[in-house]
Amino acid sequence: MLEQINNDLKNAMKSGDKFTLSVLRMLKSALQLESISLKKELEDKEIITVIKRNVKQRKDSISEYQKYDKKEEVENLEKEIAVLSKYLPEELSEEQIEEEVNKVFAEYQPESIKEMGKIMKILTEKIGTVADMSLVSKIVKERFK
Length: 145
Description:
The chain is mostly helical. The protein is 78% helix and 0% strand. Helix 5 (94-108) crosses helix 6, helix 5 packs across helix 7 (133-144) and helix 6 (116-127) packs antiparallel against helix 7 (133-144). The termini are far apart. It folds into 2 domains: 2-85, Hypothetical Protein Yqey, Chain: A, domain1, CATH 1.10.1510.10; 94-144, Arc Repressor Mutant, subunit A, CATH 1.10.10.
């Protein structure tokens, strides 16, 4: 995956696509920081985690910018998300997430919301790279009600 990002970075340089180039440079920098903090080369799973973190930051920023009606910044962030999303696996649908949550609940049979942390940890390991974990959390909370 890192090789794909590097190739796309080179292609953006060659084609003069400054916007994509800047987004990929930011991503590469974030990946290097993560690699340094983990003191090892990143695996695809860890790269996906970094990309998801960057997408989440941009989504959070979009909601802030929308509050103050800053349309240009929102558009730029949406474009950045589009560039970053190319490297993410397709996310599970809400139905597929509910199915996975049901499997974990059937297997572990949690008694109360006190066990939510344990359930979330299991789900993160199973579907963390292909699911919106905020949606997973919401579904799990609803199950405890």
